[in-house]
Design brief:
The chain is an alpha+beta fold. It is built from one helix and ten strands. The strands form five sheets. A two-stranded antiparallel ribbon has the order 1-2. The longest helix is centred in the C-terminal third of the chain and has 17 residues. The radius of gyration is 20 Å and the shape is elongated. The termini are far apart.
Length: about 110
Amino acid sequence: GKDTCQDCPVGGVCPGGYRVWSVPGFYNPDERTVPIACHPAIACLGSEVTLGSRSLCSDNYTGPGCSECWPAYRRLNPDDPSSHCVACSDDAIGDVLKAIIIPLVFF
């Protein structure tokens, strides 16, 4: 029943009652939700108790489960959704601009 104690889920710290706080490497949107593992693990800082026990993302990461890169950031390996988010280099931005501008100039 509801009054029965349950084991704290993997990726969580249970301070009592229904509450589950995520540990680093895991994410939960609120303290009533079982934490999920983050990919990569460094994307998730765990719960911040002073902010209402919501999970925080590391720099460069955002979104549900810290699974998205910040704007102007990209996956180091675009084919691997668990690879690290890194800043888009000036060279990569320049390559994109060249791919757009050169055809416009010459055609």
